[in-house]
Amino acid sequence: MAPRARSGIVLSPSAARRLAELTATAGRPQMLRVAVDGGGCSGFQYRFELVDEGAADDLRIETDGQAALVDPVSIPFLKGSEIAFVDELAGAQFVVRNPNAASSCGCGVSFSI
User: Fold this and answer.
1) Which of 7, 52, 66, 113 is deepest in the core (most CB within 10 A)?
2) pLDDT by residue (tens digit) across 57-90?
3) What pTM does this model have?
4) Which of 101, 35, 96 is nearest to 71 (CA)?
5) Half-sphere exposure of 69 (CA within 13 A, CB side)
């Protein structure tokens, strides 16, 4: 299992492997920015973005030399979560397994607390 940040957020090995693949394809380091925005069919939604660098106040979560970044506003919504990459019949995508979510939509992108 990947090490947990102080916030309890972890970047899974599957997400780290996918980030390593994206870095190799891009030819430069890529980090995954994970944020929580208001909206979506359940009240909040996850936003994923590949970035070259983070902000000074980002929480940086590392596994196997790969990193995810979370802004300070999103950290409380993601406490104890696992950021993973899944490749299933429905598609391949980064996902958040969030123990704080009371419910989520069918696509897994939006949630409520």
Assistant:
1) 66
2) 999 999 999 999 999 999 999 999 999 999 887 7
3) 0.83
4) 35
5) 15
| Exposure on the CB side of residue 72, measured as CA atoms within 13 A | 3
Tokens of residue 76, six digits? 């409380």
Tokens of 91: 């598609």
Scanning the structure block, which residue is given the tokens 């409380």? 76
Tokens linked to 70: 């979370």
| DSSP code per residue over 51-94 | ES---TT-EEEEETTEEEEE-TTTHHHHTT-EEEEEEETTEEEE
- CATH class held by domain 10-112: mainly beta
Query: With contact defined as beta carbons under 8 Å apart, do 32 and 15 qualify?
Result: yes
Question: For tokens 């429905």, what's the residue?
Answer: 90
pLDDT band for 111, please (50, 70, 90 cuts): very low
